[in-house]
Write a structure and sequence with these properties.
- The complex is a heterodimer.
- In chain A, 74% of the residues lie in helices and 0% in strands.
- By secondary structure, chain A is mostly helical.
- Chain A has one domain.
- Chain A is elongated, with a radius of gyration of 19 Å.
- In chain A, 16% of the residues are buried.
- By secondary structure, chain B is of the alpha+beta class.
- Helices cover 43% and strands 17% of the residues of chain B.
- In chain B, a hairpin with a 2-residue loop joins strand 2 (36-45) and strand 3.
- Chain B starts with a helix and ends with a helix.
- Classes of the chains: A mainly alpha, B alpha+beta.
């Protein structure tokens, strides 16, 4: 089935635009703050739709290289977490450090891009 | 309970514990958190009108069915009040407790403190010109106040949970195990903490949440230290590290709460306590504190979906911020 239109990203953009430029100016206090948080959450979803696909592919390749076998990206990540806990991979391992740094940078690019430059 | 009932019960409690007639004025709900509700009010007491704060614990806060109850420190209202009383006695600018509520006051567990005027919003304190003199002195004040907190005799507050650094880390592990949160970054953080935990620290009363946002500030500096409910006993350097965690700088550039230098903090602490401060020891607590805050964000976000709505959900998406700071700290990139 062809993808419905408008695309999800466009729907989100329209929702954010309404909340920010029409609704928020009419609000103050608690409701204004909650609406600001809602706008931020919708923008996070928009960035996730845009970025996560490519991020997950790269994450998968890094995990396969570290663990030495294939699998679903989530399962591989859980396996890596367990290996760190068990001590079977050193936390000083440069490829582990590089992987964790890149994964955190990827997540921040979705959740709060400004954090990395402050 | 209607507003009238509530106000009448509060008046009776004030008359009973503080002084008659206890007539209530300007009763306003300030915040309603997951653990407690805060009210502001004035009352007529022995011929004078006084300003008060009422803190009421939410029933859920002491729920014994909570599977994580007792894993990490959390004081019940009565203990929270007794810790603040001991703190004031030790010279700490903590809220002055005027009443600890009894069961038959009919308001649930809680306490009444004197209300202190001032600003708590860290972003305002960091940016507004009128707080310039306060900002210049607050890091030193933090050192002096922490020295006083760490002088509170542990025997006066025997209900505090005792945690060595390694026990502290083990408690965080139990929290992520409970939620089934498997993250390489978090595991790296906890493993690093286990490998670098101080083995020979002192053991004192620890505030546990001593940071910007929990200070009432006036133009002259810190007037009062709030939020004692995760008070505990353990390594005092925990408090010095926590106040430096980047999240609590609220966008400010300086390491202590965004407003001051580590040198000022350490120097004032050493002078007031007589104990020398090892910056590397404090740095451990700043780094591990970042990991701990990452876990805090995760567990708040996870509970948020069914309990407190969008704000908590959004906090769940802040897990990576302190973990990023942690990695930069241990790699010397901060």
């Amino acid at each position: 089935m062809p993808q419905s239109a408008p695309k999800a990203a466009v729907l989100l953009e329209a929702a954010v635009k309404y909340l920010e430029s029409e609704l928020m100016p009419t609000l103050d206090g608690y409701y204004r703050f909650q609406t600001r948080v809602t706008v931020n959450v919708l923008n996070t979803v928009r960035r996730e739709l845009e970025l996560r696909g490519a991020q997950a592919e790269a994450e998968h390749s890094r995990l396969v290289a570290i663990l030495g076998h294939d699998g679903e990206v989530e399962a591989l990540s859980v396996e890596l977490a367990e290996k760190i806990r068990a001590g079977s991979i050193s936390i000083d391992d440069p490829s582990l450090r590089a992987h964790v740094r890149q994964s955190l940078a990827d997540a921040l690019a979705i959740n709060n891009p400004k954090w990395m430059t402050r | 309970m209607t507003n009238e009932d509530f106000s009448a019960r509060l008046q009776a409690a004030i008359a009973r514990h503080v002084g008659a007639p206890g007539t209530i004025h300007d009763l306003n709900r300030l915040t309603g958190g997951a653990n407690k509700t805060t009210w502001s009010f004035d009352a007529d007491v022995a011929g004078a009108r006084e300003q008060f704060i009422l803190q009421l614990a939410s029933p859920r806060a002491n729920d014994e069915s909570n599977p994580l109850a007792g894993v990490s420190p959390h004081l019940i209202a009565d203990e929270d009040a007794r810790l603040m009383i001991a703190a004031v006695k030790a010279g700490v600018p903590a809220p002055r407790v005027r009443a600890i509520l009894k069961d038959d006051d009919g308001l649930g567990p809680g306490y009444v403190t004197e209300r202190v005027a001032g600003e708590t919003l860290a972003t305002k304190i960091l940016r507004e010109e009128r707080f310039a003199a306060a900002r210049a002195t607050m890091a030193k004040q933090c050192g002096t106040i922490l020295a006083a907190i760490h002088r509170i005799p542990v025997a006066e507050v025997p209900f505090l949970m005792k945690l060595t650094p390694l026990e502290h880390i083990a408690a965080q592990r139990r929290i992520i195990e409970f939620y089934g949160f498997h993250s390489p970054a978090l595991e790296l953080g906890l493993k690093w903490a286990e490998q670098h935990a101080p083995r020979n620290s002192r053991h004192t009363v620890v505030h546990g949440d001593f940071r910007a946002g929990n200070f009432i500030v006036g133009e002259e500096g810190i007037r009062c230290v709030l939020d004692w409910e995760i008070g505990q006993s353990g390594d005092p350097m925990q408090d010095l590290g926590w106040v430096c965690v980047k999240t609590w700088r609220f966008g400010g550039k300086k390491p202590v709460g965004g407003f001051g230098t580590r040198e000022d903090l350490f120097e004032a602490y050493e002078k007031a306590s007589g104990h020398s401060v090892d910056p590397a020891h404090v740095r451990f607590w700043e780094a591990y504190g970042s990991v701990r805050w990452g876990i805090g964000c995760f567990s708040m976000g996870t509970r948020g979906t069914e309990e407190v709505g969008i704000e908590r959900c959004a906090i769940g998406r802040r897990v990576e911020e302190p973990l990023w700071d942690f990695l930069n700290l241990i790699e010397g990139r901060d």
